[in-house]
Amino acid sequence: MADKYSLTNSATGDCVNLDLVSGTDGPSALDITALYKEKGLLAFDPGFVSTASCTSSITYIDGEKGILRYRGYPIEQLAAKSNFLEVAHLLLYGELPTATELVDFESIIMHHTMIRETMRTFFDGFHYNAHPMAIMIGVTGSMSAFYHDSLDIHNPRHREISAHRMIAKIPTIAAACYKHNVGEPFIYPRNDLDYCGNFLHMMFATPCEEYVPNKTAIEAMNLLFILHADHEQNASTSTVRLAGSSGANPFACIASGIASLWGPAHGGANEAVLKMLEEIGDVSNIPKYIAKAKDKNDPFRLMGFGHRVYRNFDPRATLIREMCHKVLAEISDKDNPLLQLAGELEEVALKDEYFIERKLYPNVDYYSGIIYRALNIPANMFTVMFSIARTVGWVAHWSEMISDPSQRIGRPRQIYVGAKQRDYVPIDKR
Ligand code: SDX
């Protein structure tokens, strides 16, 4: 007998019984299907703060305890022991690969990194200074114009081929965005390099001389990609699921995820953090900006702080902060003023009652931009980096949703607060 909750209308005594739905970890939920079916009532939850949109086996987050697990494995263990393509296999297939499976998966991905030669002409349609996220949305969406042979979303093999193509080609498209911005020739992918080394090579190599990606830079990219790979039903993943629920092809769905990620409240925050740190400029200005962040009449927010789910700390921020110190010590300047300012700002904010009361802590975006900057990646490419990693999560969720036999088109309702019915008024009477 499933647990039930009874809801009673305190005025009429009318009552409805709702089933309790529980998973393997985390909060249970009320199945509110009966609410509309039997009582014609909707649940109202702007921003889905307290709504579970689906069941999923991919990622688990506990906001109070700062827990993040991919397919049950703690993010701290994956960050310390795994690499991005092994994590991609885990997210996509649900299990860590055997040694043979990993070799095969890496080979499949690394041998699908080229994009159609005619796709390269799309970049010429963008002005050289187009924001790379705008180019990413356009070129990724255009993939459905090229890969017709794997668009039957109800064919598991087609889903797998599309997932492989997306994961393999997104770094190539990303690096091409950067090369278009800087006016340099595109660099073809190299099958002899690993995923992160190949990406850095496509970003920074030129036809003029040999370029060998720095080992610490490759280590930092692996960590950042692992930490950004998935995060359950965040805004961009929910966008991909909603787009996919209509039966749209996977490339169009991933393009919709990139569009949603671009917002400064979401993946665009890493670029916004760097702009904010540069605007603050010096530790002496911190009090002024903390005051601005607290001022309800000021739209300024402390970018890289706060999270819808994490109400204690974002485990990813802790791991990125550690890598930040390592990268700056080895690659960039130890006393990088931005890192010092970020550290000081974090310290001041975490002692301030306003942030403590609202449980606002540094999130995944707070330190990542400082590492990207140290790797000579420009700020307008930071969210592009996020989208490379999150493509794995997006295709894993898309595939999980499409292969769920109970899946149907997503169609939220609303509370209508507009005009009552009224008659048309001829223009000479208005
Ligand atoms: C990501 O969902 C995910 O999992 C996302 C992500 C992922 O991996 O996919 O983790 C990646 O998007 C991380 C978040 C990156 N965004 C930012 O760093 C932008 C700055 N943060 C905020 O905009 C905000 O904290 C959000 C968007 C992250 C969360 O917004 P919520 O949950 O809707 O919180 P809220 O806006 O209701 O804020 C609650 C209170 C408000 O004050 P009161 O009205 O209660 O007085 O906290 C305040 C807010 O004004 N507040 C902030 C703040 N964030 C919240 N005040 C100052 N600075 C901030 N950053």
TrEMBL record:
<keyword id="KW-0816">Tricarboxylic acid cycle</keyword>
<keyword id="KW-0012">Acyltransferase</keyword>
<dbReference type="InterPro" id="IPR010953">
    <property type="entry name" value="Citrate_synthase_typ-I"/>
</dbReference>
<dbReference type="InterPro" id="IPR019810">
    <property type="entry name" value="Citrate_synthase_AS"/>
</dbReference>
<dbReference type="InterPro" id="IPR002020">
    <property type="entry name" value="Citrate_synthase"/>
</dbReference>
<dbReference type="GO" id="GO:0005737">
    <property type="term" value="C:cytoplasm"/>
</dbReference>
<dbReference type="GO" id="GO:0006099">
    <property type="term" value="P:tricarboxylic acid cycle"/>
</dbReference>
<keyword id="KW-0808">Transferase</keyword>
<protein>
    <recommendedName>
        <fullName>Citrate synthase</fullName>
    </recommendedName>
</protein>
<feature type="active site">
    <location>
        <position position="365"/>
    </location>
</feature>
<dbReference type="InterPro" id="IPR016143">
    <property type="entry name" value="Citrate_synth-like_sm_a-sub"/>
</dbReference>
<feature type="active site">
    <location>
        <position position="307"/>
    </location>
</feature>
<dbReference type="InterPro" id="IPR016142">
    <property type="entry name" value="Citrate_synth-like_lrg_a-sub"/>
</dbReference>
<comment type="pathway">
    <text>Carbohydrate metabolism; tricarboxylic acid cycle; isocitrate from oxaloacetate: step 1/2.</text>
</comment>
<dbReference type="InterPro" id="IPR024176">
    <property type="entry name" value="Citrate_synthase_bac-typ"/>
</dbReference>
<comment type="similarity">
    <text>Belongs to the citrate synthase family.</text>
</comment>
<dbReference type="InterPro" id="IPR036969">
    <property type="entry name" value="Citrate_synthase_sf"/>
</dbReference>
<dbReference type="GO" id="GO:0036440">
    <property type="term" value="F:citrate synthase activity"/>
</dbReference>
<dbReference type="Pfam" id="PF00285">
    <property type="entry name" value="Citrate_synt"/>
</dbReference>
